[in-house]
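Subject: design request, 251 residues
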């Protein structure tokens, strides 16, 4: 492994928190690299456009050149290509915004979205990482992780959300068990008041969960009158995309 590249990746990975800039000292402390090493690597990254330097504050943040790399990675994968028409179908059938999400560490991130026709929406930022226990589509990703991962996650990351200030760990573990059994998750107001989410897992040919798919809307549109029908639609779309990814077991 080339050490300089590894260090550059380490620095950029540390800097990925949205709307934040960093001093050389911040980066040096976080990465355990010397200030001179950090400065040298940052200078190269700035020249390449992967990092931006503020001439006033002398702080650094990730640059726009990374966007094209990220979008290229997204567009060049089989999953996104297969999911695109199904997301559109899901949005058309439910009349809600449809999302494809993947796991990123202890977070879930929306990598693809199909807009529904309604003007009143639950805002879900594309590409923004949010904890795995926030919302149905992310809970699905957590539910199908290993027992060891879930145990460690519950110990270190199971923290209150903006709308759930008190959490019941035992109740949540049972919820994850139900998600694994039914292959569907439903949440109401997990982190946005009146927000309702429905999510289903996407498996590949190795029986691994590779993503989740689902919808997010408001409780005025997704409620006791139609939520079961909505869940069936999400379930079937998840099943079809899993089959397209090579999953052959019973869904």
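Subject: RE: design request

Done. Sequence follows.
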């Amino acid at each position: 492994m080339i050490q300089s590249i590894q260090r550059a990746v380490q620095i950029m990975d540390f800097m990925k928190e949205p709307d934040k800039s960093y001093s050389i000292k911040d980066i040096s402390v976080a990465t355990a690299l010397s200030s001179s090493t950090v400065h040298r690597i940052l200078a190269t990254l700035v020249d390449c456009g992967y990092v931006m330097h503020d001439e006033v504050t002398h702080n650094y943040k990730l640059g726009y050149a990374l966007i094209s790399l990220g979008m290229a990675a997204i567009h060049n994968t089989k999953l996104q290509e297969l999911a695109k028409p199904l997301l559109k179908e899901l949005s058309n059938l439910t009349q809600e915004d449809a999302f494809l999400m993947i796991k990123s560490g202890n977070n879930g991130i929306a990598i693809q979205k199909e807009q529904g026709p309604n003007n009143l929406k639950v805002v879900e930022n594309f590409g923004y990482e949010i904890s795995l226990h926030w919302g149905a589509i992310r809970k699905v990703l957590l539910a199908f992780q290993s027992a060891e991962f879930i145990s460690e996650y519950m110990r270190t990351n199971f923290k209150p959300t903006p709308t759930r200030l008190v959490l019941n760990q035992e109740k949540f573990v049972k919820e994850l068990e139900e998600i694994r059994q039914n292959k569907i998750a439903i949440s109401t107001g997990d982190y946005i008041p009146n927000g309702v989410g429905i999510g289903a897992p996407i498996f590949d040919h190795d029986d691994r969960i590779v993503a989740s798919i689902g919808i997010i809307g408001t409780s005025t549109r997704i409620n006791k009158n139609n939520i079961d029908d909505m869940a069936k639609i999400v379930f079937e779309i998840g099943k079809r995309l899993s089959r397209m990814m090579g999953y052959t077991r019973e869904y």
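The radius of gyration is 20 Å.
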